[in-house]
Write a structure and sequence with these properties.
The structure is a homodimer of 159-residue chains. The first copy, chain A, is mainly alpha-helical and 159 residues long. Helix content of chain A is 71%, strand content 8%. Chain A is built from seven helices and three strands, in the order αααβααββαα. The first copy, chain A, has helices at 2-14, 25-48, 52-63, 69-76, 80-92, 114-138, 140-157, and strands spanning 67-68, 96-100, 108-112. Chain A has a domain at 47-157: Winged helix-like DNA-binding domain superfamily/Winged helix DNA-binding domain (Arc Repressor Mutant, subunit A, Orthogonal Bundle), CATH 1.10.10.10. The N and C termini of chain A lie far apart (55 Å). At the A-B interface, α2, α3, α6 and α7 of A face α2, α3, α6 and α7 of B. Chain A binds a DNA duplex (30 and 30 nucleotides) through α5.
Chain lengths: 159, 159
DNA sequence: CTGCAACTGTCGCATATGCAACAACCACTT
DNA sequence: AAGTGGTTGTTGCATATGCGACAGTTGCAG
């Protein structure tokens, strides 16, 4: 009797695998990324009215020299239409300059203007402060581990 | 001469802090989350035409009993409007049922229907398979560490 | 040189999203 | 009992997004 009841329960349970949402890595990744980015994006959103995509483009261009839109797409795992529109916005804001490549007239070389570089300096400072808070919270060791793991994931799954 | 040039370069550099985008945790988090979720979401998107938000709600409701929209918001770090619309979609699809709470007529208790449970079983199986792939790629140890770190981040920053 | 496949960035359209405003409702005070 | 502040879920609106179609361009095969 009792045994049968158990069987029924188990039968009903059998439809469920023993899947645990709270251990599911894509879920945890999204939660952590969303919560973190929501907090951080407030710092530049209010200050410069900047999109996340726009922030990323600024960050990439601030790193080094001129980049092409496609290169930014690849590095940042972004859609080309997203980049295209974000770039338009930054150009209107005078933070960014386009120059059609001499070697390939389809491609446009993107680079920061003077004021773009100034804004980037502020953004970088904000970012570094935020990063330090996170590292302090996690501990430097674990923060490095985390960075390593996240990088592997992004690389591995990339097409 | 050479020295002066260097100074000039360093002067220009000085505007840049030594910020390195590739070590910036919010950036890495977003990349990893985006790349991972893009891969995974294909599995249910094409099969059930389901949104990421809808998947999440299914997953939460599949875990246990009935939940209120607000509870789902809190657990999944989602906007209430997002949840509201996702729930409407799931209800139209017959996967989910609403029942106004007897103790609070504002709140609605959400629970899966029979077909909702069946769909959830498939989703859970897909998820588990995906999880195993990820764990195999990272190694079980490191996967657990990662989960732990991500959980901390989501908790810490949460309001 | 011509044709052809692949690539670059833009745009239109349908959908998804965030935010604020909103009505219905609750708990608590006076 | 009526008022007040706070909560729950929905909706309108402006914006952001993904996807596919597109014109302009390149490089290569024939």
């Amino acid at each position: 009797m009792r045994q049968l009841q158990c069987d029924d329960v188990l039968g009903a349970m059998a439809e469920m695998t023993d899947f645990r949402l709270n251990d599911f890595l894509p879920y945890l990744l999204n939660n952590a990324a969303e919560v973190t980015s929501r907090t951080f994006s407030a710092s530049y959103r209010k200050k410069f009215g900047m999109t996340r995509a726009q922030w990323r483009i600024m960050a990439h261009l601030g790193q080094g020299g001129a980049l092409t839109a496609t290169e930014i797409c690849a590095r940042g795992h972004l859609e080309k239409s997203k980049v295209s529109r974000a770039v338009s916005g930054l150009e209107e804001g005078g933070l960014l300059r386009r120059m059609t490549s001499s070697s390939d007239r389809r491609a446009e070389l993107l680079s920061l203007t003077e004021s773009g570089r100034k804004v980037h300096a502020i953004l970088a400072a904000q970012a570094q402060e935020f990063q330090q808070e996170m590292e302090a919270r996690l501990g430097p060791e674990r923060a490095r581990h985390l960075a390593q793991l996240l990088d592997e994931l992004a690389q591995a799954e990339a097409d």
